Amino acid sequence: MAEQFPGAVLDLLEAAGDRPVFEHGDRVVTGAHLLAQVRRVTSGLRRHGVRPGDGVALLLGVHPEAFAAVLAAHAVGARVVGLRPGLTEGQRRHLLAGTAFRVTDRPDGTATGAPGGTVLALDGLLAAEDDGRRPQISGRPQDVARLIHTSGSTGRPKACAQTYAAMTAAWTLHPDRWPPAVRELAPRLERFLVFGTLASQVVMEYGLLALAAGGTLVTAENPAFPDSLVRHRATGSVITVARLNKLVARVRERPVDLGSLRALMVSGSPIGPARLREAAEVLGPVVFHGYGQTETGMISMATPYDEPGSLGVPPVDVEVRDAEGRPVPPGTDGELFVRTPSQGCGYWNEPALSAEVFTDGWVRTRDIGHLDDQGRLWLTGRARDVVIVNAQVHYAGPVERVLAAHPAVAEAYVVAVPDDTTGEAVHAYVVPRPGRTPRLQELRALVAAELGEATAPARLTLIDEVPLTPAGKPDKRALAARG
């Protein structure tokens, strides 16, 4: 039986030896040095009593030591929870609940959030003795290896649970299993720019892919494209649709030398064929358009040479089903159901929702699309009422409920509108209470305080009544068509 994750990562670091695997500021960290950090943090965690199955929250920046801490937490078999920036205090408390240990790199060695739990300073863990031996991998196949949290637009982020067996089955660390699109992508990640948070599923997955391809992870504290790409001589990075659009406009207006750039992985939001063609014209053949979900990992990926708008041929099982759950023929739209080797096993402590999405070994994506006669995947819509802001999915219902709680609001309806800065943004249509006039800034502040800034309305339209469908339900398509 194969050794559980992160055994394959430790093998990569050992094989790298004196080769640089991380650049952080003026520091160059070799595979051997990073592996020594993993050994020390693993030893420190075990010394403090962390055992397989324990919940460990990571409140860390983006640097080699943080990466070592992630690997060490998995080496001891913990249930790892990463906290990303931008959470409200309530969301942070929710994510920390149930974690027995919190690892932080904050200078004072403290962590804010839910009470309880043992706080461990990363510096202290790194001070543990290095015995020079390869860390023992303690993860058990069916234990939950990590909880990957959704955006939290419901007020409480949902946690998708992924087992050690699923993480071990992922193709990322095994070149012999790479799908064709990934074989095209991987060699381009020679200098992979990482930023934001290692709690990001996308950043971590592509970071591991870069290491498996012999690349180096290069950190950027406050990335600004294209300047960070130029300064760090990056050959690849992840990018949101909104940031890609801004990058294309900036380079078109003021050209810079992006000769080192070979790959930008864009995912999380739809991007139209016209935008992809413009990006290729300005940046060259560098855009890889990926499609995946928190629950599934990567489902499909288009290379720069695929037809714009297509998501390529999925390397995983995809079924397109009608409303009765029956498979439909090529060219026919339906809801996408997928199976991937590394998919989640359900939502943590949410059995009803798990049963709705994880069904008979398949994951219900709640996205609409079709497969053409060449097996290529095309997305055409959503079965979910969501707004995708900076590649994060936010559900409309919770935003509507918060808006409707405002004393000047009788009814509230939310739709997604295109936004050059964030990809999509919240447009709120509001029926005011008699004699009252709600203001955009008041509604923004209310939603931001409850659900986070990303879901705060960017636009507000006052309406006398909501249009209805023939079935008597609110017609959000009619609202969206108003612009």
Automatic annotation (TrEMBL):
Pfam families: AMP-binding (PF00501), AMP-binding_C (PF13193). Keywords: Ligase. InterPro entries: AMP-bd_C, AMP-bd_C_sf, AMP-binding_CS, AMP-dep_synth/lig_dom, ANL_N_sf, ATP-dep_AMP-bd_enzyme. One of its GO terms (molecular function) is ligase activity. The keyword Ligase applies. Residues 399-473 form the AMP-binding enzyme C-terminal domain. Residues 16-348 form the AMP-dependent synthetase/ligase domain. This is Long-chain fatty acid--CoA ligase. It comes from Streptomyces thermoviolaceus subsp. thermoviolaceus. The lineage of its organism: Bacteria, Bacillati, Actinomycetota, Actinomycetes, Kitasatosporales.
